[in-house]
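Dig into what follows:

_____
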Amino acid sequence: MGCNERPLAATQPFPPPNVGSLVNFALKSFSKLYGRYGALDNHEKNKYHIDAVGAGKDFVHTYKSPPSNIVNRLDAQRLESVQDNRNRLKPILKTIVFCGQQNVSLRGHRDDGILMDEDQGSQGSIVVNDGNFRSLLRFRIEAGDENLKTHLEKSSCRSTYIGKNTQVTSSCGAVKKFVRKSAMKLVSHPGSQ
């Protein structure tokens, strides 16, 4: 039997000087565990154990709630930027997933350029087929997706994440990995969905 707290939350060299059982070596004699001179009660009162328990609780709290991470607390703008970027990408990734689930191709004959052209409104050209993906994005905007509309209006054409070369390809790669991982989980654990 040994103390599990200290090695996980060591803030000083481990083991600290002048420590005995439960830290340097495992407890082998179980005859005096509790009481005034009991090994567990004495160990629980030591400063290094109290510090280790506190550090362990802080670690678990930070792990379970990343927004309270010190980096994010000190830089609230960074946290806001992370959330904003996630909100920008969600409708685009959902559209890619939708196309994949419905077996709808993404690409069209002319699927690059500005999605929201001021001359053509949000309709795009009826003559040129710019692909299902771009048409679905326009449809989402017409249906009231303000996050997507704001993203496409305010972002430069290089940072919209709808370009045919690298942006959609990398997004498809991420979605492919997610789908593959989900499928493997279903195959390895049938019945748990």
User: Anything to note?
Assistant: The longest helix spans residues 76-101. DSSP finds eight helices and no strands in the chain. The CA atoms of residues 15 and 24 lie 7 Å apart.
